[in-house]
Amino acid sequence: MQMTLATYNIHGCIGADGRFKPDRIIDVLQEMNADIIALQEVEHHQVEGYDLLDYFAVKTGFTAIAGPTLVRRTHHYGNALLTKLPVLAVNRIDLTLPGREPRGALDVTLAWNDRRVHVVATHLGLRPSERRQQVRHLLKLFEIRLTEIYVLMGDLNEWFLWGRPLRWLHAHFKRPPHCATFPARKPFMALDRLWVHPRRRLKSLEAHSSSLARIASDHLPLKAIIEI
């Protein structure tokens, strides 16, 4: 049986034309027909009477899990997960370092028939030193899950292909294909990443580069098919 996953930095629903158009993002989500989608840069907006994330859930039929990293009275911002699968557990992880922009991860346990799937969705910091500490933290989440199927995905902001964060992640998960997702119109940087354990479960990994995806955000979504 196969499952489709995706990770997508939606850039607050601001497209290449500078316009806030959440319905374009919804159309891209529906194009991918995924079972689980990690989102980054989800802003708090009211759209037709709904909070933006709730609006996504209503329009797509997904269950929405919020993972805000900035929470204010009038402004929430951060990660989210959309899923068609039953949710068994949610753990929100703080990856923020002193003096830096708040960062976090969603650690979610989902049911897939008689199996459990652990998904960690994240958006890492801009400085190399941040990412090194954040990746060390994330890898600890997987130390006790050697018999589980688990996934790490999100916008890693890691453009140094030789950097330690990617080397550590490749060593743990084994290396997946390199897929450029940024900038969306002419991508040449693989800022968005997706790893699966066991590696043999990953059947395909590619950037979703439809004409709509190239203008809906500044990132292309990254889409994977895994076999369970």
From TrEMBL:
Entries under InterPro entries matching the protein: Endo/exonu/phosph_ase_sf, Endo/exonuclease/phosphatase, GPI-anchor_lipid_remodeler
Endonuclease/exonuclease/phosphatase domain location: 6-219
GO terms, biological process: GPI anchor biosynthetic process
GO molecular function: endonuclease activity
Domain of life the protein comes from: Bacteria
Pfam assignment, any one: Exo_endo_phos
GO cellular component: membrane
Keywords: Endonuclease, Hydrolase, Nuclease
SUPFAM superfamilies assigned to the protein according to its UniProt record, in alphabetical order: DNase I-like
Protein's name in the database: Endonuclease/exonuclease/phosphatase
Organism of this sequence: Nitrosospira multiformis (strain ATCC 25196 / NCIMB 11849 / C 71)
